[in-house]
Amino acid sequence: MIMHTLTLSNFRNHKNFTIDFNGDSVLIVGPNGSGKSNILEAIHYLSTTKSLRVRFDKELISHNENIMRIEAGAKISGDLTNLELVLVASAVFENAATKKVKINKVSKTLQKFAGTITSVLFSPPDIELFSGPPSRRRRYMDQVLYQTNHSYKRAHAQYTRVLKQRNKVLWQVKEKKANISQLDFWNAAMIQTASILHEKRQEYFDFINANISRYAKELNGTDFTYDLIYTKSELSNERLQQYIDREIAARTTLLGPHRDDFRVVLSKYDIATFGSRGQQRSTLLALKLCELDFITQKTGQRPILLLDDIFSELDEKHRKAVTEIVGMQQTIITSADAMKTLPGTANTMKVIKL
Asked: Which GO terms describe its cellular component (predicted)?
């Protein structure tokens, strides 16, 4: 999978910006605030149709603008493919926006569009994956699986709609405007879609747990045991009955995949609480290596690797490990200083200055 061109219109600080990769790995150099990270975010957003950096997609649209567009030309399985994603801000609702996507100028659903190109993004703020809120970790799970499984994306969209309707009925029951039996339909629909999400998430964590300790050993030279503990919020009719009084009182659904979480345990210690900054950083790198391999295994193509100004965060040993990965797929790196990237990278990669 190779990206050739990228055009951004009203995406964050890029009003009208085009970059030509020519299928090469690229080093993008520019001062802080020049929009380097935004370029990588746009590519990853094109892969997943979701951003890890904002809660509302509308925030991606440039200030005082109403429409944002991302266009890309990429070679996928040997064929040149043109991708387009347009985001239109709502004139009625403050944080709402409408998303439209096309492949080769043909309109597609978001479910079919996500994962057309695949990418893995590694940036310094990603370390918050361990210590941040559970919603951050759920978004991470979703963004990996959106790229590898259309049925997951479809089930997630269905689950979100069902959850919204069920919460509405809970509110109506609380206000005595609906009968509790009206929940039965939504309970059945929620259980059905939740089972798909739980199955695919478990599959991903099984892959991670089978590989992350090996990657961590290669990176650190240690025999520490790493485990990702996936905490499912299980759904069943029995559990829903147990929680129904609390849910009516809270007017919201307290069970289901939207309450899932995971944590990383390093030799029996939670890395978010007891891990040093260095341990968290190396664990994150090992996790990203697993993510690369998982997407490759599921799609049959190596994803684009996006490295966002990470080299000031890595010691020499980990820089060397990243050096060995860079040549395995198209890699796009950002840096404020070309000389502070990987050893020799600035001399071997195409350099684009902002």
From this structure: cytoplasm
211: domain CATH number is 1.20.1050.90
Does 211 count as an annotated binding residue? no
* Ligand-binding site membership of 30 (annotated): yes
Cα distances from 5 to residues 18, 56, 244, in angstroms, run 7, 26, 52
Any binding-site annotation on 37? yes
Predicted structure pTM score: 0.93
Q: Are strands 304-308 and 331-335 parallel, antiparallel or unpaired?
A: parallel
Q: What is the pLDDT of residue 346?
A: 54
Could you report the per-residue pLDDT of 147-203, keeping only the tens digit for each? Answer: 999 999 999 999 999 999 999 999 999 999 999 999 999 999 999 999 999 999 999
Would you state the structure tokens that stand for residue 341, as one six-digit string?
Answer: 């990237």
Range of the domain at 285: 127-299
Number of folded domains that form the chain: 2
Check whether 36 is labelled as a binding-site residue: yes
Contact at 8 Å (CB) between 38 and 14? yes
